[in-house]
């Protein structure tokens, strides 16, 4: 008998994503985005994103079903992101998903978006090992996870105490006068600049209880250090060495991310590190992770960029893993959770 067909629905931020997954096989993945409408505001406007999700919901669903060559009636289960994310956008997705579940009589799983960023890796890089460490880095989250089973065995080792990695890049992008989102622009400039030009702080280095923060991140002090540096040059009327600032800032973020992730893997006896989330598009993160993992003898798995940014495939992949683990569906009255706990894969 073939494995169950899962429809995945993602609407936590500005992407409306629909995907179909059978077991660990991705059949179709279609995404619509409202990013163009947010660019001029320099950040995501939840009201605008919510309206865009409402308009894109049915056309994107139709496109995904068409691309997979299946009908809605063929679907065995529906998975939808229930959090973490923006409440308005989440509500459009979960309300739409519940309507589909009621209309078709199929079970529904309200799944954790952050865990989905890890789960999607199985669709491209094959089944997970028995134990691994995951680093999820995006505009909204930066977390280190210890994983034994993606549906039932996720433990959060640490997370950011303030800004997420992508958020820090976007804020520094604004300081440097770059378009929103600044992440990819800083990445591009950093490749030309000198990462050792400016000694930016690494964060949580001089805390009283370093063991307590061993797997946590903090990027707000770093962001302030960049702001001070920029202000002091501007006050003296000197030109900004934008490439060197980008490179030195990028190095500070990626040095900490990779060092802590590999320390966690070594400390927990895991030989695999999975990296996911929109920030894993960052070229220096990929380079540094590969370089340092080799020293540790650890395998790094990172999905292609289109599966790192928000998409429906990650939600379908986690729904599929929940079915494999024999988890009961979510009750139909499950709510959205803007800060959904990482110890739970489903609502
Ligand atoms: O996962 P994602 O698509 O959305 C969230 O759930 O947040 O991640 C988007 C974030 C943004 O902050 C964006 O600036 C950042 O990922 N990003 C990058 C790069 N590409 C995207 N940051 C640094 N370097 C990149 N190449
Ligand atoms: Zn995300």
Would you write up a description of this structure?
The chain is globular. It has helices at residues 35-39, 46-68, 87-104, 113-119, 121-125, 165-175, 183-190, 220-235, 242-267, 283-296, 312-324, and strands spanning 5-10, 15-22, 25-33, 77-83, 108-112, 132-137, 142-149, 153-159, 272-276, 299-301. The protein has eleven helices and ten strands. Strands 3-2-1-4-5 form a five-stranded mixed β-sheet, with helices on both faces. A five-stranded mixed β-sheet has the order 8-7-6-9-10, sandwiched between helices. Helix content is 42%, strand content 18%. It is an alpha/beta fold and 347 residues long. 52% of the residues are buried. It starts with a strand and ends in a 23-residue tail after the last helix. Bound molecules: 5'-O-[(R)-(carboxyoxy)(hydroxy)phosphoryl]adenosine (KG4) and zinc ion (ZN). 5'-O-[(R)-(carboxyoxy)(hydroxy)phosphoryl]adenosine binds at residues 13, 138-140, 166-167, 169-170, 181, 183-184, 187, 277-279, 281-282, 309-310.
Any key phrases for this structure?
single chain; 347 residues; alpha/beta; five-stranded mixed beta sheet; 10 strands; 42% helix; binds 5'-O-[(R)-(carboxyoxy)(hydroxy)phosphoryl]adenosine; binds zinc ion
């Amino acid at each position: 008998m073939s494995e169950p067909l899962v429809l995945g629905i993602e609407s936590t931020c500005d992407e409306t994503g629909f995907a179909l997954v059978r077991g660990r096989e991705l059949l179709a993945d279609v995404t619509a985005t409202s990013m163009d409408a947010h660019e001029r505001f320099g950040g995501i406007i939840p009201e605008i994103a919510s309206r865009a999700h409402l308009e894109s919901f049915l056309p994107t669903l139709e496109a995904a079903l068409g691309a997979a060559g299946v009908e809605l009636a063929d679907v065995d289960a529906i998975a939808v992101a229930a959090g973490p994310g923006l409440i308005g956008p989440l509500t459009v997705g979960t309300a739409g998903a519940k309507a589909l579940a009621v209309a078709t009589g199929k079970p529904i799983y309200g799944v954790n978006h952050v865990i989905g960023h890890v789960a999607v890796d199985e669709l491209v890089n094959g089944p997970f090992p028995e134990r691994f460490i995951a680093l999820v880095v995006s505009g909204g989250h930066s977390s280190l996870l210890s994983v034994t089973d993606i549906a039932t065995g996720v433990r959060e080792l640490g997370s950011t105490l303030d800004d997420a990695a992508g958020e820090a890049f976007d804020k520094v992008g604004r300081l440097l006068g770059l378009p929103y989102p600044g992440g990819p622009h800083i990445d591009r400039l950093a490749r030309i600049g000198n990462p050792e030009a400016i000694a930016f702080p690494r964060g949580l280095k001089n805390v009283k209880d370093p063991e307590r923060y061993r797997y946590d991140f903090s990027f707000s002090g770093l962001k302030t250090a960049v702001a001070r540096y920029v202000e002091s040059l501007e006050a003296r009327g000197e030109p900004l060495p934008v490439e060197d600032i980008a490179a030195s800032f990028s190095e500070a973020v990626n040095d900490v991310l990779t060092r802590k992730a590999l320390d966690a893997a070594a400390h927990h006896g895991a030989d695999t590190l999975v990296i996911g989330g929109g920030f894993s598009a960052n070229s220096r993160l990929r380079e540094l992770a590969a370089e340092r993992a080799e020293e540790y003898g650890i395998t790094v798995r990172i999905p292609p960029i289109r599966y790192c940014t928000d998409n429906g495939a990650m939600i379908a992949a986690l729904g599929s893993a929940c079915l494999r683990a024999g988890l009961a569906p979510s009750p139909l009255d499950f709510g959205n959770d803007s800060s959904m706990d990482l110890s739970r894969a489903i609502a």
